[in-house]
Amino acid sequence: MVEIARRAGVSTTTVSKVLNQRPGVGEKTRARIQRLIEQSDYVQNHAARHLRKGRSGLIDLVLMRLEGGYDLGIMQGVQEVLEQSGYRLVVFATNEDETTERLWLRRILDQSSDGVLLLLPYERVGIADTLLEQGIPFVAIGDRNEPTTAFPTIGSTIWLGGYTATEYLLSLGHRRIGIITGPLHLTTSRARLAGYREALEQAGIAVDPALICEGSYLLGDGIRQTEALLDLPDPPTAIFAGNDAQAAGVYQALYRRHIRIPEEMSVIGFDDVTYSAHMAPPLTTIRQPLEEMGRMAAEMLLRLIAGQTLETHHVELATSLVVRESCGPPRQGPLGRGNS
Amino acid sequence: MVEIARRAGVSTTTVSKVLNQRPGVGEKTRARIQRLIEQSDYVQNHAARHLRKGRSGLIDLVLMRLEGGYDLGIMQGVQEVLEQSGYRLVVFATNEDETTERLWLRRILDQSSDGVLLLLPYERVGIADTLLEQGIPFVAIGDRNEPTTAFPTIGSTIWLGGYTATEYLLSLGHRRIGIITGPLHLTTSRARLAGYREALEQAGIAVDPALICEGSYLLGDGIRQTEALLDLPDPPTAIFAGNDAQAAGVYQALYRRHIRIPEEMSVIGFDDVTYSAHMAPPLTTIRQPLEEMGRMAAEMLLRLIAGQTLETHHVELATSLVVRESCGPPRQGPLGRGNS
DNA sequence: TCCACTAGGGTAAACGATAACTCAAATAGG
DNA sequence: CCTATTTGAGTTATCGTTTACCCTAGTGGA
Q: In angstroms, what CA-CA distances link B259 with A271, B229, B241?
């Protein structure tokens, strides 16, 4: 910068003014300096600006683990917004480890992060208090557990998703629909289940407790609970999996038993992660607009950083049904199982 | 820091010495200051250190697109190493857009990145020249196209992987093995094919050109080329997909035609991305040690940043066969296709 | 007893940019 | 023609740390 100032025959102040497009510089001088800047391969020193202005140009995204499902969709959305904003995205995985988490938190607090995106489940949101206390702007993604939370959150209409999924299966003619939920201590899991119940009740169908299985959003649960459902005296004709990973488990269990999807069993998932379209057959699922949620969260955060106040603290995006090929009309008669 | 110095009755210099564990401070004083630091909730200012020391504590990972396959595994490995090193990971996706790429490059050059991890294919590596020129340490991940590259690269034994996959299928008794390669202008795609050829030749089996299909590593290619293979007068009994995404395509095509895996068709993939274990049936594949590659790359970069010279410029990690459930002995007789 | 040396600790100048403030010249109005 | 005002540009302090360098008191040897 000094170099440029020297070459232009002005002071660094003037160059700085040009660089930051501030008033107080003559038209000709501005143009001359501008040209000089463009010619040279000068780039502003990040550290110095950061030190002086107090903004690092960095936004942190914290998550438990890079998994390639839920998290990935969000990241894509965040990336998209940040890319254009001039902010850079720092990714940090806590690996569910408290120590690592504390380490990260300490690093954040040195003013090296302009804002934080929290992609953490339930308990961990104690972090939120610290951030709140330190005055670091942040937005939490995923559904708040307690409606009282005092910080901005982004979620999606989970209940409606559960309802829609069930309603869709009903519309295809299914009457016995199994559901493999997530851990029922999570509100989001309960929301899905509540939607399922509501849809059944509206259709005048009694909820059979035997058709409700609890999982913990892992593939293994999908396998295990599907087997349990299949071993029922009167197995369901469709299975609603609480998320797509569990749906993959359902696929595996059915495949082993030589049960065709969707001819003999319909399967519907939840989330619409990247690989659900890759499954065979492509998975019909309830889409959470993950990218959109990421975008939204990033935009909210940016506004927060800019000092604007948010109109609403909690934004809920619409889930939607994505019809692919894993659902069809119910089979007639019993399952023709194990024909190998 | 001033505050701490005041409380300890010393100068900031001394505090700084304690903070950085440098000599020139008495034992008692050091202990006293140390205690004071721990008590207070002081955190060093990142910007100031950065400015003074010239190190930002940031490492950039550039990739084309967050996809959840290859990239994700690498990221996980990188994350793991960086987490412990005190560096933070900045993720940037170029979206294959030159402008975006240039934008990023400019931002990197302001000394705000201590090092770069390049996860870009072939052509784009022109970036490498700029980095080289600017003296920014970096490591490229994925296989170098030209063996002459003057910068550090990390790859894996692709050729061997192709060989192993084919050999495995042969050992199961397959004699007609289809292969869906990646774009053949990429060395890595050709390496797989070369391994395939070698294995066949060693087994004394003539290579049938009709069994070799070119794809571009996308799911759709898997579908299309599988159909082509199935429509052959004498279709293969096994398919070797160039990557796992294509293997997913193979699954879909086979599913549509009601062809069972592995009973009627064996399928083997390449990469071992996160979702390959999720497929139904779980995919047997050639594992590229993605996490390990990420770790390795990060470690090399760290060493480079520390000013050490690397023993070797190019590191190649071993691929390995991961046997799951998608391969079996060849079917006897023709395909019993379309029984629905 | 005196001197040279060392260890502990302080001073002040960077690092590169920004911003509040100051100053000089040009301009406009009376 | 002189003064008030605007405008362009420079001075200098500052952001929070680190570090090259300096100083002082204490120690050991002659």
A: 29, 13, 17
